[in-house]
Amino acid sequence: MKKVFPSILLTLLAAVFISSCSSIPKTVKPGDTLVIGRVEAYVHGYKQYEDVKFDGRILGNMEITVRNVKTRKSFVVKTDKDGCFIINNCKPHEQYALEGYKLQIISNSGYSRTVWVTLSYPPTFIAYDNQVINVGGIYLDFDGEKNVAFYEVKNHYYVKQFFEDFAAESEWADKPIVDWRNK
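Given the sequence above, the corresponding structure tokens read:
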């Protein structure tokens, strides 16, 4: 029974990922790009009023501002309820920055607040045609008292594993998955 449990858990988690992530195109044309990742945010010390505090973990329904470093044009990508995102409209061989994050936070007393977090030195990646770029898990830490945000990128394997399960019906499943740091 011990060996069955991890595979059942992995199957259930993959089902959640499949039902919640953006759609992946079934076919791949020359010049197509695909970028995958996940965002998890932690907010602490943010106060609207003295007795209304916003603290906690945010996984889903975030908006990420993606900016083309060369042209300075940007667009918004939404995460699903688990923080996953898929970007399939990047131009090949151009660099992009994941610079802005719109977070919907809820206070200890139920008030809702939208917070924009812009990173001075955001994670960047280069989109390559006919390859899946895995930017991994981006962990944001927003300190509301100091109005400062830090980030760390990790868990590339986690994102890759779920993508492989999610993309099984797509031509993207046969394409190489590349860690953004190894390009």
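The chain is about 15% helix and 45% strand. Try to locate this feature in the token string yourself.
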